[in-house]
Write a structure and sequence with these properties.
2 copies of one chain form a homodimer.
Chain A lengths: L8 E6 L2 E2 L5 E5 L3 H6 L6 E6 L2 E10 L8 E4 L1 H7 L6 E6 L6 H8 L6 H12 L5 H11 L6 H13 L12 E5 L9 H11 L3 E5 L9 H6 L8 H11 L1 E5 L7 H13 L4 H14 L4 E8 L8 H17 L3 E8 L7 E2 L1 H12 L7 H17 L8 H10 L2 H13 L10 E6 L4 E6 L1 H10 L9 E4 L6 E2 L4 E7 L2 H12 L5 E4 L3
Parallel strand pairs in A: 1-6, 3-5, 8-11, 9-10, 11-12
Antiparallel strand pairs in A: 1-7, 3-6, 4-5, 4-7, 13-16, 14-18, 15-17, 15-19, 16-18
């Protein structure tokens, strides 16, 4: 037996276990609190300390590495509680989550009311759902099971569960890409062009979810991105735009919780996607958003029918919530630019801004089209003249100046890192490149270390439609460790060709 | 750095953590395998040893209680691998479960084929789905989303994923209650009556899913229930019947995996319910099954419409799979008998068998009706005379003799335990009891510790229609720990009255 600090109190101990986002508490099987409360493995336990409290999943320890008077806390539990070694934490049964009754009702086909979705989202944002419950909620929303009203209510609830930025401008521009296309790093270019035109574009971006790089990952190789709200506001007031990581400003926190389980399930329902994207935009204070939607057989959106219905839902939900949404469908058949991975994409961005001769045209042209549309919507260019205006801002060097100014305001512009190992993958025959598999290419980049290792990824040396000779480089793998390089190559060797080279007859 | 036993090999270490059914592997953050394989927290890792292999969820350890060369294994991972301290285990990325693609297809509205359901069920029975995936599968089947063909296919797949009992009798009787009515513990009585009549009734029962007690929980307070197949067969050959826990004989093992997550979600879809019930019956070798279906506003089945559609599905699926199913709808407006909870229900069963003056009539009458129907179906009584025959077997003491004989054959009859704490809940006014809320009453019993704590639960002192005076006991809460008692009382104090007492004018 141990001396408890009080009935149902145990001494906090940091056991240093990373359970990702699900808080776990470790208690010894012989612990008096375990016994008196009837806790068993997987019990949900409320842990409180100085007015803060979390619900954690119990793992019961029979080994000797934990004492009976100790409450071992996983890393996320430790952080959320703000615990210190040895302080007394109070334990009780976690209250059942009443809002899960609404999820159950949805499973049985009932329509959810706004108030019910607010309760559900508040509990999700507060990390009070277990993984099993999160999975059930996501599944209940998949396959067109949320109607328009429910999707609007879900989006609004997600906005209201977090912080909300307000700007002193009548129009606030934003931009999003529904993803699935490696290297499509237009956002830094668009922000530079739009901000240079004088329109406000306070851009918050996410880190990669399933891709080799997110805009926040790429920008982090060039400048500081973890600005808090006050710093972000200063940058925007000074430069009309910013390029920061959204995670530091707590916009739509429920989204970050849901995304983790969505990734594990590998599902992505339209309703969830719309609520995820639009809640971030609305919380960031946007009034107008351009959505880039690449369509292609190996992109996230595979055909025009899927693109149409998603575009309609984005526009309709936006309209209900006072956000003007324009969707631009783009070609999603192959990667954009040359680099795939945080630093390699940053180099593409810099080369376009600096009007380098080697700059990838496709990336520049996409950015010009999207930025041009924003200029038209914002009244900085006449209808039909937006692309020309955007191209002019880019060619004149004003966008590059603005980009440098934004990076300086965020904490200084720096050089992206370079990888230590490089491996060139050549064509195994002469012919014409007819297909590039985006998904498997992204997988190789991730195995090489992206986005965790900023310098890692893929550099493309040839594009769709190009004629290549045998042995000509198709792409290079960049990696910082030999182990990761070997891992990417092993995967590559077990795949059909990622580039389909068809011999001419 | 540590010396690895081989590339991607680590030394197994039992860290003594009970994570219930989900295997967890603990690896140090600085471990070479973690790094070279790119494993991060929550990665799914395949762990193999001597040809056995399991998929486990990774928790990354930053603390010093685990060394870099060690693979810490949770209790369930240790057991399933058959590991020994210090042996080398081999680690690799867990293969994605191809069958989960079928679950995803179902989420998007596709009908599942028999072969696909077989793949899903085989992976579930083999513990190869994560909790998140199990939750998604259950959710995908909820709300009438499986049609008749799919339900038949699911049931068959669940039968085939486990062992199957075969009996040398032309008719094998079985019985099930769809539940939701606390205290409705007729099964031990029915088995005793039917076996005493000479008809074979080899009964396997489950532990509680969402209720305060299952038949296996109740019987476990009276005798040994974890018999293996050979022992069970011996008991049945000798006594015509048995009352064992189904979990020890590996009938429909996927059901046991699913039930754990169903319990956490507190959902119970018609298709899953039918597949669960009938797969157990068919695997147990039954040819005829009686299903007791209590209907009431706070029972599991709330109205006649729901009862009809569930009864039809049970009968239809049974017919497709060669099992004759008879459904008997019963009154589900209030609990049955006096006790709610394993030991308290066992006492009710004993009092009926012993023809005690205090024995609850309602429990006896229900058992007589259901057993009577089985006697008629089995030809042990003429049509219309089953209840009289059953009542006669009970009154004569033959059922009590048979029950004792079965318990003796299973390992000996014992006395159910008694709780340490008792709290009486009195009527707060004079009047007539007009409504009893089964669900909330069951919840109080569970908060008091049932079914985990066998002695815990509720004892009823008054029934529907009774007149009570102010202060007269309505029910008592039995609990083995003060913490659990306090928890039940806290819940009770936050509820409307569970007994609705209406004052006379």
């Amino acid at each position: 037996m141990t001396t408890s600090v009080g009935a149902n109190d145990l001494r906090a101990r940091r056991v240093g276990v990373d359970t990702y986002q699900e808080p776990v508490i470790y208690m010894h099987a012989d612990c008096s609190v375990c016994r008196s409360e009837g806790f068993t493995a997987q019990s949900r336990v409320n842990v409180s300390l100085d007015g803060r409290s979390i619900d954690a999943t119990l793992n019961v320890v029979h080994g000797e590495w934990l004492q009976t008077g100790e409450a071992g806390l996983s890393e996320v539990a430790w952080r959320r509680l703000g615990a210190a070694e040895g302080v007394a934490v109070h334990l009780s049964h976690a209250a059942p989550r009443a809002s899960f009754g609404h999820v159950r009702a949805k499973l049985y086909g009932h329509e959810l009311q706004e108030r019910q979705l607010e309760d559900v989202v508040a509990d999700i944002a507060g990390n009070r759902y277990t993984d099993i419950q999160l999975s059930a909620f996501l599944t209940a929303c998949t396959g067109n099971r949320l109607d328009l009203d429910e999707t609007v209510a879900l989006t609004r609830a997600m906005v209201e569960a977090g912080q909300r930025l307000r700007w002193p401008y009548s129009m606030v521009m934003d931009k999003h890409c529904v993803g699935g296309l490696p290297g499509n790093r237009t956002t830094p270019l668009i922000v530079a062009i739009v901000a240079a035109s004088g329109l406000p574009i306070p851009k918050t971006s996410s880190r990669a979810i399933t891709s080799p790089a997110g805009t926040a990952d790429t920008m982090a190789t060039l400048t500081r991105v973890d600005l808090d709200m006050a710093d972000m506001r200063d940058v925007v007031e000074q430069e009309n735009g910013c390029l920061v990581w959204g995670g530091a400003v707590d916009l739509s926190p429920a989204d970050d919780v849901l995304i983790r389980v969505e990734r594990a399930l590998d599902i992505d329902s339209d309703a969830q996607l719309v609520a995820s994207v639009l809640s971030k935009k609305i919380a960031a204070g946007a009034t107008h958003a351009i959505i880039d939607m690449p369509v292609g057989p190996t992109a996230k959106i595979r055909d025009d029918g899927a693109a149409d219905s998603l575009a309609r839902l984005l526009t309709d939900v936006g309209e209900h919530l006072g956000l003007h949404v324009s969707v631009i469908v783009s070609d999603g058949k192959q990667p954009v630019g040359r680099g795939i991975g945080p630093a390699l994409e940053a180099r593409d961005v810099l080369s376009v801004l600096q009007d380098d001769q080697q700059a990838p045209d496709d990336l520049a042209n996409r950015a010009i089209e999207l930025a041009g549309r924003i200029l038209e919507i914002g009244g900085a260019a006449q209808e039909g003249c937006g692309s020309d205006a955007a191209a002019q801002i880019l060619a004149s060097g004003k966008a590059w100046q603005k980009f440098q100014a934004i990076c300086t305001a965020q904490g200084g512009l720096r050089e992206p890192p370079t990888a230590r190992h490089l491996h060139i993958v050549p064509a195994d025959r002469e012919g014409c490149i007819e297909v590039i598999d985006n998904r498997r290419l992204a997988r190789v980049a991730k195995l090489a270390g992206a986005p965790g290792v900023a310098a890692a990824g893929i550099e493309l040396h040839a594009r769709l439609g190009a004629r290549v000779s045998e042995g000509q480089p198709l792409f290079s793998i960049h990696s910082d460790s030999k182990g990761e390089l070997a891992y990417a190559l092993t995967y590559l060797n077990h795949q059909e060709s990622i580039f389909e080279v068809v011999e001419s007859e």
